[in-house]
Amino acid sequence: MLAFTLKRLGVALLVALTVSLITFSMIYVSGDPAIAIAGEGARAQDIEAIRKFYGFDRPIIEQYFNWLIGALQGDFGRSYTLRQPVAGVIFARLPVTMLLGALAIAFALVLAIPLGVLAAVRPNSLVDRFALTVAVVGQAMPSFWFALTLVLWLGVHWRLLPITGSDRWQNFVMPAIALGYYVTPAIMRLTRAGVLEVLSSDYIRTARAKGLRPMAVLFKHALRNAIIPVVSLSAVQFGFMLGGSIVIETIFQINGLGYLAWESIQRKDLPTMQAIVLTLSVIYVLLTLLGDLLNAFLDPRLRVA
Amino acid sequence: MPGVAMSGRVLTVEDLRVTLPVPAGTLHAVQGVSFHVDRGETLCIVGESGCGKTLTALAVMDLLPSRARRTAARLELEGQSLAGAGERAIADIRGNRMAMIFQEPMTSLNPAYTIGNQLEEALLRHRRVGRKQARERALYLLDRVGIPSAARRLNQYPHQLSGGLRQRVMIAMALMCGPALILADEPTTALDVTIQAQILHLLAELQREFAMGLVLITHDLGIVARIATRVAVMYAGQVVETGTAQAIFSAPAHPYTRGLLACIPVPGKTRRGDRLGTIPGMVPSLIGEMRGCRFAGRCPYVAGACRESEVPLETGLETGGEQDHLVRCIRHAEIAGLAAPSEAVVS
């Protein structure tokens, strides 16, 4: 298990490093950064001064390593527009997005797993039909439209929940539902398929042959095996939601990373964008690692390094 | 362990029927099978793939696929009726007084739990014992079924064990509660030939030691000859012949049994270059209603009357009227003196 963990950690580090390289090169893909900062119609000597000030005149390799060493120490440079260190901005916004993501994935899991299990235990029953309906609707409905529908009914019509902001817990209810419902169908269908497949396996027959009660068969023997692919998917979806919350955060004006990303893109604030992408990517890599470790805990066959 | 009666009827099956709905109609997988097993007795159920052997065993255990329908005139374990018993009552008996060993040792253990956990579970479910006692029993039985360094194996996972070892674990698991009856469904089919004999010896030995009733399902007549007390030959969902192993091997009465026996090369009798017997034709479809002898289409002795009405299972005459030897063939007395079917077919 230790060897397995170390190996996965090593792979995760390599992935993170690759991501950092790609993130760094974003600056040059989008054109001359000095011109971008100086603005159109700037004088040549101003551009040159900016280029020197930000170190754009140095060799790219040197720039990358300087940036990387800084990033490792939590220094992502200064925001072009906010006039303050990017790291501070990110760390102020990150908890909000993490909270939203965690609430959303929790909502998705709480809805999807019981529904998926019930649908698998009673295939083609009413519960199964209902679960299928939930899945189809969730897949077909764009999340921004669903979010606006929630705002319209829960916020405007019935006045149950606040529409914008991120100060109180009530602010997170609608965004979490809107964001979580989007990933519910995939998790539910995978749970259903997994439980259905496991229930027809030989070791379930063995468990029943031992005289175990249906609940023990389902929860001890079936669910543990069926949930393994769901763990991987949920980890990936959680990471995806952190990045994908841009739309939801914008709709609800939640001061999270997604909203910040949207602002920085509009203001062409490259260091902030870089830092957001890198932060989200590293979190994503860590989540995948966590998913792998959780699966190795669930299935001893995966513990082979 | 419960008080062990050293003799007496363990299992009585009478007119057991299993049907499965299939797109083309109703599949009559088991059609009125009757047999019984006493303590200390090994009944071998023999037949080709798809003859209903496995479903018969699963029907006794009440482990049939959910869409299958089971009916039986009598289905009794040690005098207690299983046919009318509710799901909870059956679950209390399964793994406790009757246990099953399956054909697929590689996939019959849960990959997520240790061997020890899965063994202990069987005892903890049915007996008021602590985990420690359950572990001791598991350790004792692992040792008893011939697993080296059993203590270490308890903490291992199924994927760390070979197929042969896994089947030994399955046997130990079946023995955890000291059952009166063990149903073994082709327990050696998936194993290496060298391991097969070991597992069978072990089963026979344990069956004697614990004075259990053993139902061994197989298509290997070599196995039957070595360990069976009695034999039931199944064909197309029916028992076509049943009797003591002695009677079946020395005086097979049903053309199908004779055909099966002719397929085995006999040292000394079968010469190099001889063609081994085969039974031409195919097993009939079990979908829909059937009439007459199921084997008629492949039988070298078939007569018009064979196809007309249901053939009853009646006492075989040629074994001197032995009560237990039953055969389902209207011409068995006539053909008793004729040459074996394989010779009739092959020559």
Summarize the SSE layout with pairings.
The complex is a heterodimer of chains A (305) and B (347).
Chain A: H1 2-29, H2 33-38, H3 44-54, H4 60-72, H5 86-121, H6 126-140, H7 143-157, H8 170-199, H9 202-209, H10 214-226, H11 228-252, H12 257-266, H13 270-298
Chain B: E1 9-22, E2 25-38, E3 42-46, H1 53-61, E4 69-71, E5 74-77, E6 80-81, H2 87-93, E7 98-101, H3 115-126, H4 131-144, H5 150-154, H6 163-175, E8 181-185, H7 193-209, E9 213-218, H8 221-227, E10 230-235, E11 238-244, H9 245-250, H10 255-262, E12 314-315, E13 326-327, H11 332-335, H12 341-346
Parallel strand pairs in B: 3-9, 3-10, 7-8, 8-9
Antiparallel strand pairs in B: 1-2, 1-4, 1-5, 5-6, 10-11, 11-13, 12-13
Structure description:
Chain A is mainly alpha-helical. Chain A has a single domain, classed as MetI-like fold (Orthogonal Bundle), CATH 1.10.3720. Helices cover 78% and strands 0% of the residues of chain A. With 347 residues, chain B is of the alpha/beta class. In chain B, the strands form two sheets. Chain B has an eight-stranded mixed sheet with strand order 7-8-9-3-10-11-13-12, with helices on both faces. In chain B, strands 1, 2, 4, 5 and 6 form a five-stranded antiparallel sheet that branches. In chain B, helix 4 packs across helix 6. The N and C termini of chain B lie far apart (57 Å). The N terminus and C terminus of chain B are likely disordered. Chains A and B meet through helix 9 and helix 10 of A and helix 2 and helix 3 of B.
